[in-house]
Design brief:
globular, four-stranded mixed beta sheet, 2,3-Dihydroxybiphenyl 1,2-Dioxygenase, domain 1, alpha/beta, VOC_core, VOC domain-containing protein, Glyas_Fos-R_dOase_dom, 8 strands, Glyas_Bleomycin-R_OHBP_Dase, 2 domains
Length: about 130
């Protein structure tokens, strides 16, 4: 079966999320934006991540959302070509209002950093050796 897969994440403030991911340079998913949703395309294959207002997502899921202050729901990984690109991501994330909880460093044969968006959704930026 061939299927399109995307992610749906809950956010407290859709406009804040829209501004954050726009500042990081991600492309908006045209035609999918609303007061309840910010949607962006990630990577060469245009993986879609929808950032829904929390109440809207809970209603659609018919359940509660993860408490990101106590754990992770998922961590997305974005590839980088150079160490400088990783370092630049860390600066851009801070400037856009995110938090770098693992600064750029060498580890397990890679160079990378990790950050959280304003709602606590986590991402790695990794350059493989």
């Amino acid at each position: 079966m061939k299927a399109k897969i995307w992610a749906n994440l809950g956010v407290k403030n859709v406009e804040k999320s829209r501004a954050f991911y726009t500042k990081l340079g991600f492309e908006k998913n045209a035609g999918r934006e609303s007061d309840e949703l910010a949607s962006f395309l990630f990577g060469e294959d245009n993986f879609v991540i929808h950032f829904f207002k929390e109440d809207s997502l809970k209603k659609g899921m018919k359940g509660e959302l993860a408490d990101l202050s106590k754990g992770n729901e998922v961590i997305f990984t974005i590839s980088a070509e150079t160490k400088e690109e990783v370092d630049n991501w860390a600066v851009k994330v801070k400037d856009a209002g995110g938090s770098v909880f693992s600064p750029p460093e060498e580890f397990q044969g890679m160079y990378g950093c990790a950050f959280a968006d304003p709602d606590g959704h986590k991402f790695n930026i990794l350059k493989w050796k």
